[in-house]
Amino acid sequence: MSSKLKVAIVGSTGYGGVELIRFLVHHPQVEIVSVISSSSAGAPISDGFPHLTDIVVLDLDGVDIHEIAAKADLVFTATPSGVSTQLVPQLLDAGLKVIDLSGDFRLLSGATYEAWYKKPAASPEYLKQAVYGLSEVYAEKLAGVSFISNPGCYPTATLLGIIPALKADWIDHRTLIVDAKSGVSGSGRGTSLTSHYAEMNENFKAYKVNKHQHIPEIEQVLGDIAGEDVTVTFTTQLVPMTRGIMSTIYVTLKGDYTDRDLIGLYRDYYIDHPFVRVRGEGIWPATKEVFGSNYCDIGFSADARTGRLTIISVIDNVVKGAAGQAIQNLNLMMGWEENLGLGFIPVYP
Ligand SMILES: NC(=O)C1=CN([C@@H]2O[C@H](COP(=O)(O)OP(=O)(O)OC[C@H]3O[C@@H](n4cnc5c(N)ncnc54)[C@H](OP(=O)(O)O)[C@@H]3O)[C@@H](O)[C@H]2O)C=CC1
Ligand SMILES: CC(=O)N[C@@H](CCC(=O)OP(=O)(O)O)C(=O)O
């Protein structure tokens, strides 16, 4: 009998789910026992995803809580916001561990969720069970828990870029401006006018300016770190590429800190965490340099002329922004090496 952790994936036919499969197939402590679809149960997963032919030889299962509980120890829910709200409580009640990739359990306040997501919030009983999984920042809180809420893609890039400087009190958080750009896979596999080729190709467009649902998530975590309320100006933009997020952060420095000071501060902060790489002086990260990997790369320019700091943080939205961080959180939950099953070099060029 296998002593591996038995894992099921709900939403296995979405971008996050398929990416979970890509990594979990190589994870030494995990066995994928069920790939689940609410719309295509019964068919081999490789019918819809021929790149998995002969690699994942499983038929898609339906969403049946008892069947999942009979097969699996832990479930990844890579399901849309609103779906997880309903599904996750049933999985937890069935005794399963859960790592949820949606936005449904990230915000502590149900009222804040409803204001930004425009959907009914999960019940407070379950909201308070969720541990927020920004791996590098909350690693110690994740060990041994049963339910992790995986961070959003934009919050991951943005928060990892801001937190060390905020924690050190080197920046004035009242001046934070975040200019964030994402590839189209961030909006999921379902077709929409937004992700239509003719709308996206050779285009660069802003959306949800100051209204994005990730704003309260970023402010919640920064408030936790700062010990007081924090607000950010946050602009999201779509760029004509498949994967990648670049979050460019502008903030006023509280002292005469140099790039070298910042590099030292950030390298110290992330010293025990292999997936955040801090660039050397004048070497700014590009999305291609993390493509397909779980890395978050960060670079700086402290401008003595304006007194402002520019921080550039890049991730692959489907990996560090979703499936990769979810597996990193699984590793932290289970007490395994943080990088187990994730040690891939980015795809380049
Ligand atoms: N894409 C990204 O970069 C990121 C995504 N996320 C979040 O992760 C989650 C998954 O995202 P992503 O994979 O991109 O989304 P997709 O739209 O690509 O996939 C979502 C999947 O959920 C399944 N689904 C839909 N309705 C139900 C239901 N009622 N019950 C069970 N399953 C259902 C669908 O599969 P089927 O019809 O086969 O059931 C679908 O393939 C979302 O909450 C998203 O916001 C978070 C960070 C980054
Ligand atoms: C490019 C793009 O459209 N990205 C999506 C990210 C959505 C997402 O990941 O949703 P939750 O984290 O809130 O579940 C967006 O901006 O809404």
Automatic annotation (TrEMBL):
<feature type="active site">
    <location>
        <position position="153"/>
    </location>
</feature>
<comment type="similarity">
    <text>Belongs to the NAGSA dehydrogenase family. Type 1 subfamily.</text>
</comment>
<dbReference type="InterPro" id="IPR050085">
    <property type="entry name" value="AGPR"/>
</dbReference>
<keyword id="KW-0521">NADP</keyword>
<protein>
    <recommendedName>
        <fullName>N-acetyl-gamma-glutamyl-phosphate reductase</fullName>
        <ecNumber>1.2.1.38</ecNumber>
    </recommendedName>
</protein>
<keyword id="KW-0560">Oxidoreductase</keyword>
<dbReference type="InterPro" id="IPR036291">
    <property type="entry name" value="NAD(P)-bd_dom_sf"/>
</dbReference>
<dbReference type="InterPro" id="IPR000534">
    <property type="entry name" value="Semialdehyde_DH_NAD-bd"/>
</dbReference>
<keyword id="KW-0055">Arginine biosynthesis</keyword>
<dbReference type="InterPro" id="IPR000706">
    <property type="entry name" value="AGPR_type-1"/>
</dbReference>
<dbReference type="Pfam" id="PF01118">
    <property type="entry name" value="Semialdhyde_dh"/>
</dbReference>
<dbReference type="GO" id="GO:0003942">
    <property type="term" value="F:N-acetyl-gamma-glutamyl-phosphate reductase activity"/>
</dbReference>
<dbReference type="InterPro" id="IPR023013">
    <property type="entry name" value="AGPR_AS"/>
</dbReference>
<dbReference type="InterPro" id="IPR058924">
    <property type="entry name" value="AGPR_dimerisation_dom"/>
</dbReference>
<keyword id="KW-0963">Cytoplasm</keyword>
<feature type="domain" description="Semialdehyde dehydrogenase NAD-binding">
    <location>
        <begin position="6"/>
        <end position="145"/>
    </location>
</feature>
<comment type="pathway">
    <text>Amino-acid biosynthesis; L-arginine biosynthesis; N(2)-acetyl-L-ornithine from L-glutamate: step 3/4.</text>
</comment>
<dbReference type="Pfam" id="PF22698">
    <property type="entry name" value="Semialdhyde_dhC_1"/>
</dbReference>
<keyword id="KW-0028">Amino-acid biosynthesis</keyword>
<comment type="function">
    <text>Catalyzes the NADPH-dependent reduction of N-acetyl-5-glutamyl phosphate to yield N-acetyl-L-glutamate 5-semialdehyde.</text>
</comment>
